[in-house]
Structure formats: structure tokens, C-alpha cells
Amino acid sequence: MNQLWFYERHTSGYGVHWKINKVLHAEKTQYQELAIIDTVECGKTLVLDGNIQVSEMDEFIYHEMIAHTAMNSHPHPEKILIIGGGDGGTAREVLKHDTVLQVDLVEIDHRVIENSRIYLPSMACSFDDPRLNLHIEDGIQFVRDAKECYDMVIIDSSDPIGPAVQLYGREFYLNVYNKLNDDGMIVVQSESPVFYQDIFVNVFQNLSSVFDKVKVCLAPIMTYTSGPWSFTVGSKKWDPERIAGDKKQINGLKYYNEHVHKGAFILPQFIKEMLR
């Protein structure tokens, strides 16, 4: 951050500058560099290790897509596990489904949660829902030790560096598979297929080696690396492209709807070829 500009480096040849009004908070936690900045274009924004995680301007696109796409493909999701998602936005969307009885949210860094409560209350409001259980621990270990099974597991992690790197591996996906009910599903934020092709393809291949049905959907997240952002869905039974027939419409959504659901799984040819 320099002279009220924040520089975000994506690759060796590509970066983005964001003009900021103020640095609201900055600290080094046990796990990462954390900052909350007030940007001119995007409002309050959570930054981890120099990378934007969520902003007030477009967080609804990311959170609605990572949550509702799979939640609407499963006829009756009751027990949900979220790995990461310490800002609370994914849990907020999941809890809009009236079938949900329990959400376990596992975040390794308690400072993400605490700062989100202070600076990002529109997302962190989910932490006050009595159906939500917060677990401040390592998501990999939580899945390994879990005694319960879930209908849905959502991997809302940061980029595969530092504490998040193992959340993208086959061994972890196999452990998730074993903690899902017989018709369970997993959703993974799987990065940019344009700038992070290796990670994107690796997630798809690892999930495909574990789950019977694996599909990719796309959405434009303006504050992330330019181009489409991907979410990869693995399922034991249900087709992620199909909306379960008895789903009730959720009012008040800003991005997701049944037409977006169907269209998000229609992939450009160059992405199809990556996944062959």
C-alpha cells in the first residue's frame, strides 16, 4: 500500500491498482497478513496476504454462486460444512435455505472472523444465527476427525498458498467424500481458469478421481483476477446442473437465479478443452 493506492499482484506480468480512502485495520495474524481497506470503487474490502478476498461491491456474486448453485441442486440439504469463509458471506447465503438445520463453519484464523464482525457486518451477520456453529481450527484436521456426516461441504478457502494449500489436494477431497451422506455434494472455489489454469485443472482432476459427477460453473467476480472465476462441484448422486424440482424461490438475491444457474455451467470451448 502506497500513497492511498493498493497494488495487488496476480502474476509476474499482471497486477491491479485500487485507490483507497483509508486503511481501516492492518495486522499480522498467526497465519497471514490481514488488512481491511476502504476502497474508492469497492467499499470496504478484506485483504489477506496482499490479495483481495471480498469487497462490499461484488461479494454477493461470489457468495450467491458458491452457495446456491449446489444447494439448489440438492433436494433437501440439512447439514452443511463450510471450510474457510471467515467473513461469513457464504454462511449467510446457505442459511437462507429453510431446509438447513445446522451449519458448521471451520475457520483457522479467528482474526478473520473478529475483523469481519467489526468491519463487514453485512456478511458477518450470519454468525448470530443459532443454526451456525463456529469452529476455530484447521479445516483439514476437522474433516479428518469429524464424527458427523454432511449433505454439503463448501470449500470457501483463500488461494492455495500457506494454510490453504492442502485444501486443494486429492487426499482432502477423499476425506470429504467419506464425511458426506450418500447423496452429498462438495463445492470448491477453484480459481481463475485464465490466470491459474494449473490450479483450476488440478482441482477438477482431483475431484473427478473421487466423485461420480463433477461439473464446473463460472461467474464474473470483478475484484478477482480479470475473466471468469470458477466453482467446481462434486456430487455422489445429484446432477449439479439441474435444480431440484421442489425448490422454493429465495427472495432478495442480487445475482443468482434459475437462468443464471443453467447458464453458469455452459463453458467456453477453451475451458472445455482444458478439462478433457
TrEMBL record:
InterPro entries: PABS (IPR030374), PABS_CS (IPR030373), SAM-dependent_MTases_sf (IPR029063), Spermi_synthase (IPR001045), Spermidine_synt_N (IPR035246), Spermidine_synt_N_sf (IPR037163)
Domain named PABS: residues: 3-236
GO MF assignments: spermidine synthase activity
Pfam families: Spermine_synt_N, Spermine_synth
First-tier enzyme category under EC: transferase
Gene3D superfamilies per the UniProt record, alphabetical: Spermidine synthase, tetramerisation domain, Vaccinia Virus protein VP39
Cross-referenced SUPFAM superfamilies: S-adenosyl-L-methionine-dependent methyltransferases
EC number: 2.5.1.16
Keyword terms of this UniProt record: Transferase
Family the UniProt entry places it in: Belongs to the spermidine/spermine synthase family.
NCBIfam families hit by this protein: PRK00811.1, speE
Descriptive protein name: Spermidine synthase
Species this chain originates from: hydrocarbon metagenome
